[in-house]
Write a structure and sequence with these properties.
By secondary structure, the protein is an alpha/beta fold. The chain has 11 helices and 8 strands. An 8-stranded parallel sheet has the order 1-2-3-4-5-6-7-8. The longest helix is centred in the last third of the chain and has 16 residues. InterPro entries: ACMSD (IPR032465), Amidohydro-rel (IPR006680), Metal_Hydrolase (IPR032466).
């Protein structure tokens, strides 16, 4: 089974608005519609069997509706595994975890840059402690600011791994979007998963080769960042930039199966 481990889908009422926010922040054009139906159509064309849809609440007030949508996706789209969201300002985060568990949601997405908190916020620690038993975390890492100024960075992620060695976590964007040289220093080779989303257009070739040499291929999962990228385009870009063989690309596409389903 081939898995796209990094996608975003939105309710039709807000899909265009959500895409506009993505486009404004990253100064790019979202190629796809951003709906579950469009995601699954494009994934199928690319030979992808299953997708992980990530939800991230931009404020504490958005945690409940965000997780309600994750539960809806989980229970209405058999080819989608949904990840819910937490926020350090949310006082009822334990209840939210219970709701996610009851609906079969076993993943949490954190995006400090969009959610307006820092990844080194100690209020996250009780959440990691409680959820590490039965949840996978996918955490956005990196942006254009220097690591010490950016809400997320590879060094903050490394500190979390030190504090929670049993945490099952995916460091998005090969460990640090636009901070790949720091990801090479702080995360590559560690006991952490990385996804390949939103990397192939920007990552310098020498840094990409160094990360792939240092980080085991069996700890990489494929991701498109849909609706920003089309799945087939991203598969092609992955193979072109990495120069992996068909079998090696298939291995990365299949790694998400082991992570999701054992």
């Amino acid at each position: 089974m081939f898995v796209d481990f990094h996608t975003h889908v939105f309710h039709p009422r807000i899909a265009e608005k959500a895409k506009m926010k993505l486009a404004e922040h990253y100064r790019l054009f979202c190629r796809c519609k951003g709906t579950p139906e469009d995601l699954l159509l494009r994934a199928g064309r690319a030979g992808i069997d299953h997708c992980v849809a990530l939800c991230a609440a931009t404020s504490a007030l958005q945690v409940r509706p965000c997780n309600a949508y994750a539960c809806y996706l989980q229970n209405n789209y058999p080819r989608i595994t949904a990840f819910g969201s937490l926020h350090p300002d949310c006082a009822d985060w334990k209840k939210e975890l219970d709701k996610l568990r009851a609906s079969g949601v076993r993943g949490i997405k954190l995006h400090p840059d969009f959610q307006h908190f820092r990844l080194d916020d100690k209020r996250l620690f009780p959440m990691f402690e409680e959820a590490q038993k039965d949840f996978i975390f996918l955490i956005h890492i990196g942006d254009s600011l220097p690591p010490e100024e950016n809400p997320s960075c590879p060094y903050k992620m490394a500190a979390i791994l030190d504090a929670f060695p049993r945490l099952n976590v995916i460091a998005a964007h090969l460990g640090g979007f636009r901070q790949w040289k720091y990801a090479l220093d702080a995360l590559a080779g560690r006991d952490v998963w990385m996804d390949t989303s939103s990397c192939m257009k920007e990552i310098p070739g020498d840094v990409l080769r160094a990360i792939l040499k240092k980080h085991p291929r069996e700890r990489l999962v494929f991701g498109t960042d849909y609706p920003i990228m089309d799945p087939q385009d991203e598969i092609d870009a992955l193979q072109r930039r990495t120069r992996f063989s068909d079998a090696e690309v298939d291995e990365i596409l299949g790694n998400g199966t082991h992570l999701l389903f054992g």
